[in-house]
Amino acid sequence: MEKVKEILNRYGNSKDNLIQVMLELQNISGTNSLPHEWVVFVAEALDMPVSRVYSVITFYSMFGTEPRGKYLVEVCKSGPCHVSGAKNVLQLLEEKLGLKPGETTEDGVFTLIQSSCFGACDIAPAIKIGEKVYGNLTSEKLSEIVDSYREGQHNR
Q1: pLDDT tens digits, 80-114
Q2: Distance of CA 34 to the CA centre of its chain
């Protein structure tokens, strides 16, 4: 729990920084998720009910409570993306990765989810992998993007 304490201290043990604390904890988890014991520890340290911390981390799709792949592939399901072909993009990703939304590839590289709008309506349909947003997607472009991650061109 030393790393959790260190991150909490860095953010002043303040409830106002809960999202930043949880993002940083998720980044160091090695599972791209937040272990239950860390959530409980943070809740106690910030004098918050555990249910309150869970209400925050389950509200935002960027947080996971179960282990996820190295790369989280988010398919926007907002209105503009839906109208512009998000359903086809999701289907292509399901075929390319061999999984359904909420699942992780067997090699632990990708987790596919559907997400709320991440502000890329001008390039709909769009996906987000980590912090990088891709838009104006075609089947070929989508395949190149996935392959580039599989080949390790985006190691973090």
Answers
A1: 999 999 999 999 999 999 999 999 999 999 999 99
A2: 11
